[in-house]
């Protein structure tokens, strides 16, 4: 039996290269998504309003209006997941610094299969809702206490802050400079290696209680993100609870 058309999720592809847009459309539709294609940035915001997509694939360099402007305008009225694409990896760090509200970033050239995998991951994160009884990570800010399934990680204050920042928004990529700005309120000058050192120690402590799963992931040339095991893998999905 064919799937009901109305049950399919819609992906809005905002890409000015017709050949690439059509290739993405073909791969996404093979994965049972519906698609809409827009080639001009000037039409993108109204397309989000008109089509109410479940996710937007948004190119950075567009005729009429660039992807940064489109993303900012969309965020004024919608929380639709947005994956932004750029042809230069160094642009990703700049985009992260702008905090424009995209949910993920991908660098060209990319494989269509990678894009489909990213789409699935972002859609999964956007629809997951933690249960009232957490089964994974619990963070208690009042005591700087971090536990995994009841096991204390014994973190320092800086390590706790790092984990809280990353875990608050699973899947979001933070650059080193963003992490430094959030950890050190006095704006002291520290090097990228300082963050890397804290992350290394934090990972070691996490591994002491979470042996079967990597929670903090490095994103080459960009920074770090926190990600839990997806539903359907292992013993089931995990959750995060953060208490003030």
Describe this structure in words.
The chain folds into two domains: 7-127, 3-Layer(aba) Sandwich (Rossmann fold); 137-243, Winged helix-like DNA-binding domain superfamily/Winged helix DNA-binding domain (Arc Repressor Mutant, subunit A). With 244 residues, the protein is an alpha/beta fold. The model is unreliable at 1-6, 129-134 and 231-236 (pLDDT under 50). It has a five-stranded parallel beta sheet, with helices on both faces. The protein has a four-stranded mixed beta sheet with strand order 8-7-6-12, with helices on one face. It has a three-stranded antiparallel beta sheet with strand order 9-11-10. α3 (67-75) links the parallel β3 (55-59) and β4 (82-86). It is elongated. The protein is built from eight helices and twelve strands. α1 (18-30) crosses α5 (112-127), α2 packs parallel to α3 and α6 crosses α8.
């Amino acid at each position: 039996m064919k799937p009901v058309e109305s049950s399919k999720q819609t992906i809005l592809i905002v890409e000015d290269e017709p050949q690439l847009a059509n290739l993405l459309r073909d791969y996404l539709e093979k994965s049972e998504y519906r698609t809409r294609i827009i080639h001009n940035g000037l039409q993108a915001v109204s397309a989000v309003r008109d089509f109410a997509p479940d996710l937007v694939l948004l190119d950075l360099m567009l005729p009429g209006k660039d992807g940064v402007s489109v993303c900012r305008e969309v965020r004024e009225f919608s929380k639709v997941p947005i994956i932004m694409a750029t042809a230069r990896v160094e642009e990703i760090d700049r985009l992260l610094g702008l905090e424009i509200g995209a949910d993920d970033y991908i660098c060209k050239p990319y494989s269509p299969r990678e894009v489909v995998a990213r789409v699935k991951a972002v859609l999964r994160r956007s629809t997951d809702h933690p249960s009232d009884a957490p089964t994974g990570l619990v963070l208690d800010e009042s005591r700087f206490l971090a536990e995994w399934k009841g096991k204390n990680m014994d973190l320092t204050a800086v390590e706790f802050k790092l984990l809280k920042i990353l875990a608050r928004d699973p899947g979001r990529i933070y650059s080193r400079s963003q992490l430094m700005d959030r950890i050190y309120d006095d704006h002291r000058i520290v090097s990228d290696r300082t963050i890397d050192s804290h992350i290394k120690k934090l990972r070691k402590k996490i591994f002491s209680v979470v042996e079967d799963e990597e929670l903090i992931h490095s994103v080459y040339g960009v920074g770090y993100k926190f990600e839990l095991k997806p539903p359907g893998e292992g013993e089931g999905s995990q959750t995060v609870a953060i208490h003030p």
